Amino acid sequence: MSINSSTIHLIIILVVSALLIFTGLKKQPGIGIFGAIIIIVLFMWVRGDPISQIGFAPPQNWIFTILMGLGLGLIIQLLSVILIEPLTEKFTNTKHDHSLVNAVKGNWKVFLQWMLMVWILVAVVEEGIYRGYLMTELKNLLGAGSIALVINLLYSSIVFGLSHGYQGSSGKLSTGIVGVVLGGIFILSDFNLWLVIFTHGFIDTIGIGLIAVDGDDYLQKRIWRKNT
Question: Which of 38, 41, 83, 132 can bridge 55 by disulfide, Cβ–Cβ 3.0-4.6 Å?
Answer without folding.
Answer: 132
